[in-house]
Amino acid sequence: MLIKNIGYSQGKFNIIKVATIIIFVLILLATMWYRKRLFSIYKDIEFLYQVGKNKINHEIYTLEADTISMRMNRKSVTTDNPTMMDPVTGINNNKGMINSYSNKKHLKDSNFTAVTIIEIDNFSKSKRAFSQEMTQSILKKIAYTISLHEQAIDVIARTDYNQFTLILSRTSKKQAFKDVELIRQSIEELKFNISDKGPVVITESGGFIIKPNNTNLDETTRQAKEILQYAKTTGTNRILQTRDMAERHM
Predict the structure, then answer these.
(1) Which of 63, 99, 110, 146 is most deeply packed, by most CB within 10 A?
(2) Over the stretch 19-44, which tens digit does the pLDDT of each residue have?
(3) Does residue 72 sit within a domain?
(4) pLDDT (tens digit, 9 = 90+) per residue, 171-188?
(5) Which long-range contacts (CB under 8 A, 24 or more apart) does 95-104 make?
């Protein structure tokens, strides 16, 4: 009986020993993997810190660092030239939009390029519903809200009094329209208190179109404006796309 117990204990000890060794090896490998990953992240941070200086040769490891790097490069293009910026909102004007798109279009790879023109429903050049100060405040807040959804290779701009142009690059047409709809909803959720009118909800209508590869930006923008004009005749606070125009002629 005693010999049996000793044999059992020895077997149990051997199992625990093997399990301990395996766990130790796994922990060691995991530690080495995390150490390598942390070192790569550190090198990404070091690279980002040197943006604008003499950059070191470095292949970016993390997607986040790549996105930040592209955003920093984008901002240096527009902010260095005030003639390409809208003075009210601080984002691209029409000239800046064309310049930014020209610089970024080769980065889009196989993505779909969606062009959307949105127009604020609440006021226009001919219908100045608010004071200049309040109008500018609304425009700034809308521009900021749009910028929160902007990805590294997107281009956003204020291209008219109450119009913004969004050039989004996405992996699918569905995702592009979904993101535009999300922007519309985000703007609708903004709250503005007007002294003589109380709380006001700002809405916008839009024309959405996927840019064909064989069509230039000017032509695509013209088509987006055509869809926008149709959207304005069918109601407010909605984004329409090419198929909605097609349904009109059926």
Answers:
(1) 146
(2) 888 898 889 888 888 887 777 776 66
(3) no
(4) 999 999 999 999 999 999
(5) 96/157, 97/155, 97/156, 97/157, 97/159, 97/165, 97/167, 98/217, 100/74, 100/155, 100/157, 101/155, 101/167, 101/217, 103/74, 103/77, 104/74, 104/153, 104/155, 104/169
